Predict the 3D structure of the following.
Amino acid sequence: MNPPAAPPRAVPPKLKWAGCSPSVFFVGAVLGLVTLGIGLVVYCFDPSRTPFYPGCAFHRLTGLNCPGCGATRSLYALLHGRWRVALQDNALFLLTLAALILRAGWLGLQSLRHRPAAPFIPTRSLFPWLILALIFGVLRNFATFAFLSP
């Protein structure tokens, strides 16, 4: 006679992540830590006095200011609460940073409301931003718009 068969074991349910997969959570956590680390380095070391920050290759080659010139100094001033200096160093950087923070907040709110996720940066907004950056980069090199130069 055959021994009685053991009853089948129940398979435990898989853990479900609230709204995102573990890989998305991991990437978000790593990006958050990298951003925090960069912010801490910029907060502690003044870019105008510390030589380890990379210089602008475009400025070194041409003597002109690119749209990104002054962004690190602007971030340093912003982290120290000097809004006016940050705006003077690179206004486009502050505008872009504000837009990215607002977009992240809006997407976070949409996620909390369990609405479908949208891309973080919509492709339809990239071309106008590129045009704005080019105009900003050209204008900040004219004497009339010297207030845009770092």
Observations:
- The chain has one domain: 23-148.
- The radius of gyration is 24 Å.
- The chain has a mean pLDDT of 87.
